[in-house]
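Record 1 of the preview.
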Amino acid sequence: MLATGLLGGPTGRRVGELLATAGVDASFVEIGAETRRTVAVVDGTDATGFWEPGPTITEAEWSRFADHYRQLLTRASVVTLSGSLPPGLPHSAYATLIVYAREAGVPALLDTSGPALRDGLRATPALAKPNAGELAALHPGPVAETDLVESVRAVASGPVVVSRGKAGLLAVAGDEVWECVPPVALGGNPTGAGDACVAALARGLRDRVAWPELLADAVALSAAAVAAPVAGAFDADVYRRTLTAVSGSDSGGSRARIHR
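->
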């Protein structure tokens, strides 16, 4: 795995140090402004997040990153494009990176929201993972609230996995619709659960895993991330138990194909 992006100031240096300590390879582009911080307050059941405004990225910094990203694609088997776009970048920034990845023959997984998600979906990533609220914001009205499948098809031509919190995952890929629901609702720190889901989906894209196994793995890793008190970590025992519970089960709604 290789982490990349835009880092600046003391906070950016600290991010680099934490990645190195965790054994994660990194190759970032330095910017002049300070990398933002996020604070999560966890009470054992849920979490409240506080986000600083992101640094403004200059046109020159974005150009340097785009060139750097294209070079990194030569050694990538899959790329994830995650998070909100910082000020200074166009809404089409992720769409541009998706096109670069396609030209390099690398599948891109998109996880963002708002106009960046709308523009990114138009570039047809290999897979997108909005949550239900982010999807509804793109397609407001009764359809978005009552039928996620039709809401997905209204805004995306490629495969989409919708995260629904405790209700699990819903995948829409052409005529196929799949869902995977965790066996029990877990309390804990949901910060990072979406990122864990993306990590599992990226691994599945790399290994060309079929939908049932792909969703089961993503649900299990997401649940394991919620069970871990620190964002970025996961509970290995919860992962194994959840994966066993949802793998190979097409009954009770745990993992099923929906015909629509």
